Amino acid sequence: MAELWVFAYGSLMWQPGFAFSEQAPAALIGAHRSLCIYSFHHRGTTEHPGLVLGLDEGGACRGVAFRVVSGKKEATLAYLRAREQVTDVYVERTKPVSLLDGSGRELEALCYMVDRGHPQYAGRLSIETQARLVRSAAGRSGTNLDYVLNTVRHLEEAGIDDVELMALAQRLAAGKSAPRK
Questions:
Q1: Measuring CA to CA, how many Å separate 32 from each of 28, 73, 114, 170, 178?
Q2: Structure pTM?
Q3: Which residues span the domain enclosing 97?
Q4: Catalytic center residues
Q5: For the segment 82-115, what is each residue's pLDDT rounded down to a tens digit?
Q6: How far is residue 11 CA from its own chain's centroid?
Q7: CATH of the domain at 45
Q8: Strands (DSSP E) along 40-135, which ranges?
Q9: Is residue 179 part of a domain?
Q10: pLDDT digits (tens, 9 = 90+) for 134-168
Q11: Would 79 be classed as within a structural domain?
Q12: CA 47 vs CA 70, 85, 134, 181: distances in Å
């Protein structure tokens, strides 16, 4: 892989944290955005786990592809691994991604796929369970509520319609409560 592209579908979309020379709306076929990972560090604790997004098997996902600045590949990989692989719940995979910028380009991008065999894999939870966990969790990176609402706001700004996540956000906004510390 001569150049590095990274596919972002959650907080990396609005807070990549690495230098990039290009960004474009993109689509990944074969995986979907899902609030399917228990968070024990960034948005929760072991006592009060939160939920964060993962790319789970099946479906399709719209997000953003970032081309990493030339010469910054190794530094970017080190940063992403430190950020995304705290507990190794994600598996790094290179997947084909289609850019949705009108160019018709297809490229290979680094994706962080959820490891379904990992103990933090939550699977598909009911909206009630998701809301309960998100409302009660906070971690090193802030509250789980802020994470979900901020992600949904950025998805809406990007014109990405994620029906399940938006339904959860509506439920959360209607009944905001402070997370336990």
A1: 8, 26, 10, 20, 29
A2: 0.90
A3: 5-174
A4: 84
A5: 999 989 999 999 999 999 999 999 999 999 999 9
A6: 5
A7: 3.10.490.10
A8: 50-68, 90-99, 106-114
A9: no
A10: 999 999 999 999 999 999 999 999 999 999 999 99
A11: yes
A12: 42, 20, 13, 10
